[in-house]
Amino acid sequence: xxxxxDSLEGFRQRTHSHGLADAVVQGLDLREESAILCSGPCxxxxxxxCELEDATAxxxxxxxxxxxxxxxxxxxxxxxxDLYTVDELMAGYRRGDPASHRHCLDQRIYAHFDHxxxxxxxxxxxxxxxxxxxDHAIDDALDxxxxxxxxxxxxRVVAIMGGHSMRRTDPDYRKVALIGQRLAASDPRILMASGxxxxxxxxxxxGAWLADGGEAAIDRALRTxxxxxxxxxxxxxxxxxxxxxxxxxxxxxxxxxxxxxxxxPPNLFATHIAKYFSNSLREDGLLAIARYGVVFAPxxxxxxxxxxxxxxxxxxxxxxxxxxxxxxGRQYWTEEKPVYPLLEDLxxxxxxxxxxxxxxxxxxxxxxxxxxxxxxYRG
Length: 379
What we know:
Elements: E1 3-5, H1 8-17, E2 23-26, H2 34-37, E3 46-48, H3 54-62, E4 66-68, H4 86-89, H5 105-118, H6 125-147, E5 156-161, H7 171-186, E6 190-194, H8 200-209, H9 214-225, H10 236-246, E7 253-255, E8 272-273, H11 279-289, E9 294-296, H12 301-316, E10 321-322, E11 325-328, H13 330-336, H14 339-347, E12 356-359, H15 362-370, E13 375-376
Helix pairs in contact: 7-8, 7-9, 7-15, 11-12
């Protein structure tokens, strides 16, 4: 069985104790480790996007190792060993200067991606390959986060889905934030997750960020955020940074955005960001990891698509579990966008029909998630 190594500490421990046979070393700068690498054969070792001295690379190849080189002229790392952070994606942004957002790493990657998808003809093969390698690396880093390699219990992921256009001043935004807060505070094993963008996605992670602050902390944050209620407003990022400064994060939270919608600013309340090029991988993957349930806040076509993606996973037991599907907004989901009655019909007589619920009340939504853990699919 191959061992994955994505830190210099792990590399040094492995070389000292077992050597590099059957090891996959990912995204590390190993130029200072040349003496260790050249001290013996590298048969069975695989190096993904690592930096190696020329002589060391020749030794690796000559003694049976494999090297997958970095691809040139990219603003992103194809073999990155970890998820993104807000600080990394926002590097280059200056407070008080909204125009500087387009120079941050996140927007430079988006501009690169957008250029290639809009040009005539297919995406060049090396660019397409690089994007897929990057998204695989994100998959791998996300798996590391969720399964806690240090022996802790796997994280219990709960997702909140909803519209990206939901304004910070919308009453539903406050409800979503309170739901995220109370779920995060209810169990340290719970990891709140969202699509990592604005609107309901931001509200979910804001709640997790303020997990230990209670309702008063949510309301203080909302007064600050109300200065820029739409993600198109110039003060959108600065107001979020002000909330972060006033109340450091008290709970992990996961954002899973995509450069497919890269014009939207990143969610600054995520402590871990799994950002993908492929929107289909991102959407299906977010629902796949939300084994402890999904809350559906009001949203439009994208949210409705996600409802039926989640329903299909439950309907067929795709991942071995059946999980709660809880809808926030009785009138919205039964009259304005009458998805709920259709879903009830679809789920009639199926296991997940017992785990579908709808409510307008924050505490009831929280209880419907925490009181109904996933169950094994019976077929």
